């Protein structure tokens, strides 16, 4: 006879067969499906929200959402066979190309200008460094002077002491002006 296992089992022709199922229940299948769908949605969202992919996808999705009107044959408005819409599209394309070329020229000018700033001689660079160091030193000096002025004003404030009557520096001396304080003082003295 076979030794009993930890899990309950049944015997078929003397061979132990586990009582557990070999497949998942429908609820379990739906839960697994939901997990995969959620994972896919998160991955798709992360992929589509990357800046490069978002810009590329906009153009393609626009074509899918708003389809181009399809017509039967070619719509021509004049009798010479020239499509006015095609001419308009060519003009718009030409304008866009000109705008792109102008923008590229601006970028090139900026790059050249920045390159000139970067290609300075060593003397100019050392001059700029010296100016920066001088400014730093001047700021440090101003801060030291300001701190010294603050310390001096604090010291003067500390020297100004309220005195009930003239006495030594830092001492108020004399009898207290309030009666209850005077009584407590006398009680302590006794």
TrEMBL record:
Residues 121-167 have a biased composition (Basic and acidic residues). It comes from the Eukaryota. It comes from Mytilus galloprovincialis. The chain crosses the membrane at residues 30-50. Keywords: Membrane, Transmembrane, Transmembrane helix. This is Uncharacterized protein. Residues 121-190 are annotated as: Disordered.
């Amino acid at each position: 006879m076979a030794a009993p296992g930890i899990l309950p089992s049944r015997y078929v022709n003397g061979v132990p067969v586990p009582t557990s199922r070999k497949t998942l229940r429908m609820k379990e299948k739906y839960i697994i499906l939901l997990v995969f769908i959620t994972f896919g949605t998160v991955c798709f969202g992360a992929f589509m929200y990357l800046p490069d992919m978002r810009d590329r996808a906009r153009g393609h999705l626009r074509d899918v959402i708003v389809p181009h009107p399809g017509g039967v044959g070619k719509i021509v408005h004049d009798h010479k066979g020239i499509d006015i819409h095609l001419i308009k599209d060519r003009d718009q394309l030409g304008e866009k190309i000109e705008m792109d070329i102008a923008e590229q020229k601006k970028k090139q000018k900026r790059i050249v200008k920045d390159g000139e700033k970067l290609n300075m001689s060593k003397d100019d660079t050392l001059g700029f460094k010296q100016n920066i160091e001088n400014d730093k030193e001047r700021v440090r000096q101003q801060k030291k002077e300001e701190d010294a002025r603050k310390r001096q004003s604090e010291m003067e404030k500390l020297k100004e002491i309220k005195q009930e009557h003239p006495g030594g520096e830092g001492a108020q001396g004399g009898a207290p002006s309030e009666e209850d304080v005077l009584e407590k003082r006398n009680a302590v003295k006794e």
